[in-house]
Amino acid sequence: MGLVPFTRGVFTCLGVHARKRAGLPAAAACLRGNNNKYSQSADSHDPGKLVCYPLPHRALLKIHGTDTSPFLQGLITNDMGLLEEPGNAAAMYAHMLNVQGRTLYDVMLYRMKEAEGLGVFLECDTTVHDSVLRHLRVYKIRRKVSISPCPELSVWAVLSLQNRPDQEAGQPELSAPEKALVWEADPRTSQMGWRLVLQRETDPLDLIVPCEKGDTEEYQKHRYRIGVPEGVKDLPPGVALPLESNLVFMQGISFSKGCYIGQELTARTHHTGVVRKRLMPVRLSSPPRGLQGETLLQTQSGKAAGKHRAGVGELGLSLIRTAHAKEMLTLKCSDDTTVTLEASVPDWWPKDVKVI
């Protein structure tokens, strides 16, 4: 079973290049393609059409108190100072790592509108909500912080489904902004729209006009189409490495903030400039059946090429060796059928290149 041949010119480089980004003193580099056939939203959508997607797979914790910033500074990959500086965005992406430098949890931090000192909402995968809470409490010690779950709140993604993903839409105005606890641009990439946090009884359609409600699965397909990981299926706890997961490209790491758990391996990998595998969006020849966790990928000659992580239908994310990223790859399903897949380079990855 075959696919359309891999688009010529998809890759202009395979490598790593350190560069500075706004708000992050240093960031690493990229693989970059100049043609991505399926990283765009469906062409049938009207330009500027707004859709609100409920995210029941994401949960919130509230962290506040005078020691909030130094407490979180030692636990996350990003710099808490960015949330404290006036004029900076009030949303930040980060990972929490284990001592071996592997990702435990991917989180989003939102500065609370009104709090003594710095208060934040922490968004995480619902399935690890309790684990994140325990993890934070282990390191709380005598810090003057309060940590509590927020079951009364709901998380929404708001996307402007435009024909061209390189066109950044302006943030929609809310009819009742005081009802939004969080209303911020998604810090990972502009193609992920905005994050909205509300009381559960509040309907986002009452705040955003015109807007329509979308299905959560369509949100997941959009993520996989453009190659943005989220949650434990895409980033298995204790398995995924932050730089292989493109944390740099999503403005999720600071290389100048100082020590945090897992920092040593991450910094060493960054400074060597070698990332041999990348988490990439893939399109499969047919929806794979019966996959449990990571599944081995092979080249057509039988060489190991990486692992398929997760997906919806024919779209997904795979950790792929960059040396084989231009090739047609295969994976074997639980019923012994073989599915082929091809990888693509997201449009939102940095354009700066350094050829290996």
UniProtKB/TrEMBL annotation:
Keyword Mitochondrion: yes
Entry keywords, A to Z: Heme biosynthesis, Mitochondrion, Transit peptide
GO CC annotations on file: mitochondrial matrix
Domain of life the protein comes from: Eukaryota
Protein name as annotated: Iron-sulfur cluster assembly factor IBA57, mitochondrial
GO process terms (BP): heme biosynthetic process; iron-sulfur cluster assembly
Domain called CAF17 C-terminal: residue spans: 276-351
